[in-house]
User: Fold this.
Amino acid sequence: MKLNQVIRGRVWKLGDDVNTDLIYPGKYLPIIDAQEMALHALEGIDTGFPQRIRSGDILVAGSNFGCGSSREQAATCLKFAGIVCIIAKSFSRIFFRNAINQGLPLIQADVVDRTSEGEEITVDFGTGKIGVKDGEIPFPPLPDFLRGILEDGGLIPHIKKRMAG
Assistant:
């Protein structure tokens, strides 16, 4: 993903303390195919959720998103379901790193009360602003080394690129 482009997507709103078992229920851990994992994204919140997600959607959540276990499948299933960005008031540290490693951009910002489910918002990594219906919300930029991982599509592609050149 090129972080110099503006991301535009439909919002799905979630609350506080969305844990990895809600994002990707443990009963699916034997699945190793990322496309199949995507069929169960957020199923712990609502069994019909995976069928409603469209490519380009954005998750907006409260505090402590991704808490719980260290399962990397939680980030993987969201990315392969088509989620292009997650904006939350705060993230679990392990989930944050798992998402970056998968090439899934995360933004720490409190936008829950300024967005509506289904609303289209924009995320501009270049200016560090989220465009919502009533204005713009600034967010702290990601460090350059994390931006590099995201732009290369995740940690493994990033390492391969560095080793090749």
